[in-house]
Amino acid sequence: MKRAGTLLIAAVLLLTLCACKRETRPAVGLGTFHGEQVSVYGGDWQPIGEVYSGQTYLTLNAGGEGVFCVDGEAAAVEWETSGGRLTLTMGSARCEGTIDANTVTIGFFDADIRMSFSRTASAALPLLDSLPEQAQEPDADAEPDHAAYWAGDWYGWHIVTDASEELQYLKDTAWDACAHISVRGDAGMLTAWDTENEPGELLLRASVTFSAGTTDAGHMTADSGTYLDCDLTNGLSCDPGVSEVHTFDHMICISGRAEDENGGWVRFRLYLRPWGMEWEDVRTGDTSGCLYRNMLPPDYDSWYAPLLARGVADMPDSFGTAK
Length: 323
Hints:
A hairpin with a 2-residue loop joins strand 15 and strand 16. Helices cover 9% and strands 41% of the residues. The two termini are 22 Å apart. It has 323 residues and is mostly beta strands. The chain has helices at residues 10-13, 133-136, 146-150, 280-284, 300-309; strands spanning 31-40, 46-47, 57-60, 65-70, 73-82, 85-90, 93-99, 103-108, 111-118, 152-163, 174-184, 187-194, 204-211, 219-222, 226-227, 230-238, 252-259, 265-274.
């Protein structure tokens, strides 16, 4: 099933997508900044609502991935900060700006456009290079129960958000997915399968670790693993407190990049909720901060919802074996 992907004013960007392997990826997200002002072609700063009628915002999620939305058109970007500088990349395009706790000022890729974004002080999270030690390391005395949030069966969907030239046919393609997360102390295993997998086949497999995050749920990461039988090049990262879906109860976004032996690559996102939860709040809720407007699994109404209506409590081992 295809979902309508969105690009940031493609006529302006003129991007040639290419693989972009990052040496370091921020483990903690910084949240969402909303558009305030814009300067076009070196002109005076104007209220952003006088230039664009649609929503304009910048979301910086955990794992160095984010969403840059201009005039209602959202696209996935990668980001990193250093010494008060913010760098965004999208394929081969790159833009730089400044960032502090509550404001971002940045150029719009290759266009002669600059934008400022802000948020209230209460929404601010600390910048990565100023994070206190206790925010990055688990509190040994607290002994967090990671299993309470993470362990068990999950349902949702995954999507390829970007791909190398030879794999462009996969871009913006989405499938329903089921997953299982096992937890033992600070470590565990994540496995997932989708509508194309037979029983026993896997879409994704990764050994995971759990640490302190921005909420009591903590932060799940993986250094290696496989997705679509390709190696994960930057591991996985998932901090529920700062993901694009953090406003929805017990919903997570796992993002990563996988590469095959020939250099072909894909970037993907896996959206999940515990098996048995309904998604009606996602159907009717505000998804303006998400990469896609429709955040329901493609086969939610035809496959998952009927199973719940029949009282199916246990997640099947494949989509074809569900009764």
